[in-house]
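Appendix B. Raw example, untouched.
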Amino acid sequence: MEWRVQAIRGATTVSENTAAAITEAVIELLDVLETRNPISPEHLISVTFSVTRDLDALFPAAVARRRPGWDAVPLLDVQQMHVSGSLPRCIRLMVHAQLPVLHGTVSHVYLREASALRPDLKFSPVPLGRE
């Protein structure tokens, strides 16, 4: 199979605006992302994190940069556009990676309260390469 550039989306929420809560949520999100998709740091082209305006205790990219091999990955933090009534304390990400899979087999990851953002993805497929 040929390798392709793929985008993988994900999101999670935190219970409070603290460095500890953000760290825990980002680690969980990235652990699940790596478990459900055949990626390793050398496959990553870039990762963009966005946070709602009520999160300012820590940059999610600072957490990701501490992962083995992630120190060379281009990471970016941005503030999510505020929409009245939207999900609070939410961290989203978009990963661009070189993967040996087709579009439909990428597993997007929505955890905690963020699972409400994409109810169609609530029941994720079997992790790739782990059938």
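End of appendix B.
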